[in-house]
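Run log // design_07
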């Protein structure tokens, strides 16, 4: 990825964001070769700690030599000026609803076919675990991997919660906040290659992805990781949350 290949708007985004992140964070980057040396399209799956995650993960992916392509609500892409810039920066609109979701999958498949580095947060939202361990994931990344055969590269992060802690909604503006980001080898999903995308298959693939992320995060944080956190049922009190067996 060269400056010339980025074009004006992506270069503009880099000039706007990277100097801020360089001052705001003190970075420990590891495993960047997993992104840099993997040819063609790849699916990047980070754990989701904080609303600051996209800035940190974008910085990491860009420094690895790839251009990060995030998913965004399609409605944002229809906002004048903002939507136009997002399109020029190669971000990907995602529609809601059964019919529109198929169109969104087609856009993701096309991005990977063009050699893109698509960033998908498999948890779908910031973790609700009180100690910020990963939750059970949603199946979007697994579905995309099954449809394309693209490698799924896990990226574990620890530190963005010091920039913005979702538990307290506290934002820290102090410089050089330590953040650690580690990319691991692609998750081995070969046992499901060519399988029908049934709910059971997608759930198994998603659990394999999330367990890898959990274990990578444990290596950064230290200690023994808990089972994957399961979202509470709408009809179940929050103090009776079950945990999925690891």
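design_07 sequence
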């Amino acid at each position: 990825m060269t400056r010339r290949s980025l074009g004006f708007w992506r270069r503009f985004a880099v000039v706007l964001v990277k100097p801020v992140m360089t001052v705001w964070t003190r970075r420990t980057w590891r495993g960047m070769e997993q992104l840099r040396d993997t040819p063609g399209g790849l699916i990047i799956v980070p754990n989701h700690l904080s609303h600051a995650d996209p800035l940190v993960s974008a910085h990491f992916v860009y420094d690895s030599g790839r251009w990060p392509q995030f998913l965004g609500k399609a409605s944002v892409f229809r906002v004048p000026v903002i939507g136009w810039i997002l399109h020029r920066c190669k971000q990907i609109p995602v529609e809601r609803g059964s019919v529109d979701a198929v169109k969104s999958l087609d856009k993701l498949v096309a991005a990977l076919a063009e050699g893109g580095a698509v960033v998908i947060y498999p948890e779908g939202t910031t973790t609700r675990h009180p100690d910020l361990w990963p939750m059970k994931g949603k199946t979007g990344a697994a579905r995309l991997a099954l449809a394309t055969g693209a490698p799924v590269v896990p990226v574990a992060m620890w530190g963005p919660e010091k920039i913005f802690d979702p538990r307290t909604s506290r934002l820290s503006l102090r410089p050089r906040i330590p953040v650690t980001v580690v990319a691991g080898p692609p998750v081995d999903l070969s046992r499901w290659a060519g399988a029908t995308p049934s709910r059971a298959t997608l759930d198994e693939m998603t659990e394999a992805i999330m367990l890898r992320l959990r274990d990578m995060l444990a290596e950064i944080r230290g200690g023994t990781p808990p089972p994957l956190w399961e979202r509470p049922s709408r009809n179940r009190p929050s103090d009776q949350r079950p945990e999925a067996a690891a």
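The longest helix spans residues 199-221.
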